[in-house]
Amino acid sequence: MLFLLLLHVARAAAQNRPLLTLDNVYSQSAPSPPFFTLPSASQLAISVALCSGNLDTAVPRFFVTNSSSTASPGSGGGDDVFEIILSQGQGSWTGVFPSGGVVGVEGAGQMPFEIGVSQDGPLHEILDTQPLVGDSTGTAALLFSPAYSAPTTGIPAYPNYSLPAAIPSLPAPPAPTNCTLVVSPTSNSLTSMPQTACMLTSLKSSGTIVNESLWLRDHEGWRTEWLLTGLTAKTNYTMYAIQEQHKVAGPIFFTTKSSSFSCPLVSRLPYCPMIAYAMPLPPPPSPQVVYDSTNLPAGISDPVTEVLTNFTTVLNTFACGRDFYSPIVTCQDCQSTYRTWLCAISFPRCADPDTAPAAAALLPSQAPNMRNSAFPPGNNYTQLLPCLEACTATDRACPNFLGFKCPLPRFNAAQSYGVGYIDSGVDGEQGGGSTGAWSDNYGNVWCNW
Ligand SMILES: *[C@@H]1O[C@H](CO)[C@@H](O)[C@H](O)[C@H]1NC(C)=O
Ligand SMILES: *[C@@H]1O[C@H](CO)[C@@H](O)[C@H](O)[C@H]1NC(C)=O
Ligand SMILES: *[C@@H]1O[C@H](CO)[C@@H](O)[C@H](O)[C@H]1NC(C)=O
Ligand SMILES: *[C@@H]1O[C@H](CO)[C@@H](O)[C@H](O)[C@H]1NC(C)=O
Ligand SMILES: *[C@@H]1O[C@H](CO)[C@@H](O)[C@H](O)[C@H]1NC(C)=O
Ligand SMILES: *[C@@H]1O[C@H](CO)[C@@H](O)[C@H](O)[C@H]1NC(C)=O
Ligand SMILES: *[C@@H]1O[C@H](CO)[C@@H](O)[C@H](O)[C@H]1NC(C)=O
Questions:
Q1: 96 lines ligand 1 (CB under 6 A)
Q2: C-beta of residue 318 within 8 angstroms of C-beta of residue 302
Q3: 318: in domain
Q4: Which of 95, 124, 153 is a domain's end point?
Q5: Distance CA 419, CA 429 (A)
């Protein structure tokens, strides 16, 4: 009799416990009773995320059991009770649930949190891919999500070894991914909060997204590109990209330029897909805020595409795909590195001496270094020089008969390139330079690539 009564009470309690269903995320605060029932499945990933507070404050603890669907797992332990360890406000546990299971919460108080259940890996995650900063002006920035969908480009083969045209036709973009941008002044200390989508998206993001679209910037794949305006000059910002609603990429940092910085942003040039930076040009025709292939003057783009066309013609005189000039690189690598180099030297990148790192490869204003004579002369701007490695990569990837040569670091290279940042400037040791990279995730850009 007593046994039956207890069973009845246990059932009633179990019935008050929400059943978590697959691929759904439950938002909760102050659950009562503090238990959630899990479905039975051969494998489940249970993930939790905190949605408020600070990483320093006391945080709730989460326990999961796969022993039965009526247990009450907690810090008391027991058979098959596991703690979901939180790091930076989120955590997950993956295991087998032949007869269902239960998640128990302790010490949550009023703190809102989320629980997600999936058979395809945790729904909450800190991604190891990073967003990317194109460039900024005093009030605007071009920002990119991590690359999420690599293009499926065929490898050309002899005898029909066709290299992309100077102005390549872009493959069809993938289905739009739900990617959310979070930007906030670094002084708001977002990095000390739970690094979770529910926390970060609950904050007011800075600026206004004027445009959001997909862009195939390089071989890493398609990214969401955001044009953000309404930022404050000379301010360090923290940026995250939220993918699939609950996965967090970032943080990375960028700094807006001085308010006197006058170079507009340029991006979305199919012949120079990696370009997303400020150039010494007059403001684009109103109402546009940035230049792209639709409004960049032909006098600036045509010389570049013509050189690329001619280069490709000459490269094609080599029996690409039949004869090999190197065991490791191909005509395709040659054309692609040449394109990157040509774009970097043809489209000067503006820098702001006030906010650039002290060691950056800056060419002071009005120095005569304009390689694309179509740029309007007399502009007062400081140039961020291309990295010498954009040149040496081309030298390494192209056949000798093209006669492509880079200036030597010990002679005059530093007049026209940033030397010694990525590779050593003394002996050219790869990666042996002062920074080992042309930029970092903290907003420093030392040379242009
Ligand atoms: C619970 O999960 C653990 C770890 O995955 C496993 O060793 C154990 O056999 C599971 N218990 C049951 C009842 O399936
Ligand atoms: C050569 O390749 C291009 C691009 O892959 C294709 O469009 C073209 O039809 C091919 N030509 C021949 C003769 O196979
Ligand atoms: C956003 O960018 C796309 C692609 O460049 C363009 O077609 C569209 O007109 C832009 N929208 C606005 C509002 O600028
Ligand atoms: C995209 O994400 C936002 C916020 O994370 C969400 O509100 C919206 O429903 C999502 N849209 C789609 C189509 O998944
Ligand atoms: C490209 O080749 C054409 C034809 O050979 C030539 O007339 C033109 O001057 C070349 N352009 C450049 C920029 O080298
Ligand atoms: C060029 O810019 C510098 C730094 O912003 C400024 O000091 C100088 O007066 C400017 N010169 C001209 C001619 O505008
Ligand atoms: C921006 O803030 C980050 C984090 O505090 C810092 O590491 C970085 O150096 C700052 N960048 C600049 C340019 O001040």
A1: yes
A2: no
A3: yes
A4: 124
A5: 12
In CATH, what number is assigned to the domain containing residue 77?
Answer: 2.60.120.380
d(CA 104, CA 119): 20
Half-sphere exposure of 336 (CA within 13 A, CB side): 11
Give yes or no for residue 341 having a pLDDT over 90: yes
Number of other residues whose CB lies within 10 A of the CB of residue 195 = 21
Give all strands of the β-sheet with 81-84 in edge-to-edge order.
Answer: 35-38, 101-106, 61-65, 81-84
Number of domains in the chain: 2
CA distances, 179 to each of 29, 44, 247 (Å) = 26, 25, 10
291 against 7, higher pLDDT: 291
Q: Show contacts of 423-430: CB within 8 Å, 24+ apart.
A: 423/388, 423/389, 423/392, 425/388, 428/392
Same domain, 210 and 243: yes
Q: Is the CB of 130 under 6 A from ligand 3?
A: no
Q: Is 379 in the pocket of ligand 6 (CB under 6 A)?
A: no
Q: Is-contact 238 207, C-beta < 8 A?
A: no
Q: How far is the CA of 91 from the centre of ligand 1 (A)?
A: 19
Which residues, listed in sequence order, are joined to residue 82 by a DSSP beta bridge?
64
Question: Could you give the CA distance from residue 313 to residue 169 in angstroms, rounded to a whole number?
Answer: 18
Atom of ligand 1 nearest to the CA of 67: 13
Of 142, 213, 224, 295, the residue with max ligand 3 atoms within 8 A of its CB, to mutate for a pocket test, comes to: 213
The SS3 call for residue 416 is helix
Find the 148 Cα to ligand 3 centroid distance in Å: 21
pLDDT in tens, 191-222: 999 999 999 999 999 999 999 999 999 989 99
**Bond before 33 cis per omega within 30 degrees:** yes
